[in-house]
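haha ok so turns out i had the wrong file open the whole time. this is the CORRECT one, sorry everyone. sequence first:
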Amino acid sequence: MLRDAAQTALFEVLNRNRIPFEWNRGESYVVMKETGSKILLRAVEEFERLRGSNLAWFGIDELTYAPEAAWLRLEGRLRDPKATRLCGFGVWTPKGYDWVHRRFVAEPIAGYETVRAKPFENRFLLDKVPDYYDRLLSSYDARLFEQEVFGEYLNLTAGSVYYAFEREGNVAECAVDESKPLLWALDFNVDPMSSIIAQVDKDRLNVLDEIVLKRATTMQACLEFQTRFPSHAAGLRVYADATGARMQTTGSSDIKMLNDFFGHGEYGTANFRVPLSNPPVRDRVNVVNAKLARADGQRKLMVAPRCKELIKDLEQVIYKENSQLIDKDRDSARTHLSDALGYLVWQEFGGGTVGERGKGLLSA
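then structure:
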């Protein structure tokens, strides 16, 4: 983010205004030629490395993704004796009731000031893309839309994880379309071995069936899939978390077993969409909620009534108290099918054809 956002914007402003500067790529700092001032460009994850500098000012982009300790370290370095005004600032989008909300909104400290900008005040953006915010109605669920677009503070990590799910709106009979590929998404666990089977119809995802096997192997899951869907010439796409590509003590991997099993043509071309690394859980959950109920009210994820365990997941999976962690300990039967669903939705509608941090997909 430092390189792609802050650094790029800084260079654009300097060049556009013909302000002379020198860029030291090796040590990542800018020297302003006319004043001799130095601007350091630093990441804040390892905030202890920020000690030792005497700063006149600092700014942090995407403050809600930075640790509070980074802000405190930098604030403590505002002590350049030659500075006429010492200042620190941060820019952010709300992300729940976190430390940024506490420090700058709920319990502001003397000397702090918060400017809350509303989206439709951004005339520069709307003059260029008048329907920008309307487009986002189909990308976010209603609650996330309020946070990401309108900058509202919401607790998106309390209670139900899949809060957008409603039986009345998301459960419906789904029939197999022989002209479209089958999508099989797995969460590799021995107990239970869990997976869902679905199809995409334009921008809608229909979950047709689920497979939940107690103390089962990957091969047993393949045989059960074959029993329910003996053949499907339109093709098969397989989705899973990144752990499926790891070698086991047998010298094979779950993905290789699947590739060997489906390599005989009964399902047309078998395509494996497994990332090299998993997407952030928060992003995966947001994409699923946006399919369950978009901000414009449309529901683009339907679950067949026979998928009883997946329905339980969507209704019962919760966050651990006062955290952003999904509670996987409360009920050992929960989270597996919703995780499998999340891997599929992320690849088809969220992360596209790349894994986390721009890594490509595994090829089978």
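Residues 2-116 form a domain with the Rossmann fold fold (CATH 3.40.50.300).
again sry for the mixup
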